[in-house]
Amino acid sequence: MAIWKIDQSHSEIKFKVKHLVISTVTGQFNNFDATVEANASDFSDAKITFEADVNSIDTRNEQRDGHLKSADFFDAENFPKISFASKSLTKKSDNEYLLKGDLTIKGVTKEVDLDVQFNGIVQGFGGGEVAGFEISGKINRFDFGLQWNALTETGGIVVGADVKIEISAELVKAS
After folding, report:
1. What is the pLDDT of residue 143?
2. Residue closest to 164 by CA, chosen among 28, 7, 10, 61
């Protein structure tokens, strides 16, 4: 069984959500960890676990980040981690997969579907194997208890319900 670990310095865990209906705010988690266990060289039998530190949320706005960490949203004090555990990885084509797994946010666990593009394996600078992936999907924040909402003076929603997930992951094979 090969064990692969995410390389934080070459990976990004981003999310996008509509703001005031007309624009998009992008954020990311700066501290995270992921492990992939696989026997197959194409990762078709992979088991994936992932965890992000809610306190590392970064939307380039300190006040907004503080609000997101509060009980209105992620409640980082009581739920400091977001986690994911895969259930299945189904090959759709040579390098495209459908990843199903349990996502846990704020103590609520729901099954989610994520699209995965496998970009291949190369030799890294230290001679070890490195694998690259692009992962995307969409969740509804209300499904996970992130209920805070407000309306503008004209009745528009301040924060959208749908959250796009965009992950660029570089994994290093453990020796």
Report:
1. 86
2. 28
